[in-house]
Amino acid sequence: MQEIERKFIIRTIPFSLDKYPYEDIRQGYLTTSVDGSEVRVRQKGGQYFLTVKKGSGLKRQETEIAISQSQFQELYKATADQHVEKKRHIIQDEDRVIELDIFEGKLKGLMVAEVEFKSINDSRTYRAPSWFGREVTEDERFANRNLAKYGLPLLDY
User: Fold this and answer.
1) Which of 4, 38, 76, 92 is most buried per CB count within 10 Å?
2) Which domains, and CATH codes, for the chain?
3) Model pLDDT for residues 15-67, shown as the tens digit of each residue
4) How far apart are CA 135 and CA 154, in angstroms?
5) pTM exceeds 0.90 for this model
6) Please, what sign has the CA dihedral across residues 156, 56, 148, 15?
7) Does 29 qualify as catalytic in the annotation?
8) Model confidence at 70: pLDDT above 60
9) Residue 100 vs residues 48, 68, 113: alpha-carbon distances, Å
10) Residue of 20, 22, 29, 48 marked active site
């Protein structure tokens, strides 16, 4: 499946998140590559997945399969300390869904909004809400696989 997604840093949230549903997410990276390819395992609420992504930036290929809790636990151990933990809030914004990730653990303080699109053209015409900060779609330092591996970038974001 093709994934087209833009990613933005969030500095402050000008509203309460109380009315927006969220899920706890844990994901660990089994392997990553400089070309953006990755293999990860993810726990999202009570569901477990093995995911392969190819490419980087705006447009990527993604294959995801459901796995059992015990398979997740075994594979998660193999990810060593290359993990991310976050709460993902789902925010409806007109005809778009914003996935607001509030990171925990070693990435505590980082907030990132992701918006998926049906086409490249659709992504280009998107006007982000005023509370979104700098776009980091093409900034590999903010790819989850690199955050898991290297932590927060040292530069001001």
Assistant:
1) 38
2) 2-150 (2.40.320.10)
3) 999 999 999 999 999 999 988 899 999 999 999 999 999 988 899 999 999 99
4) 17
5) yes
6) positive
7) yes
8) yes
9) 20, 26, 4
10) 29
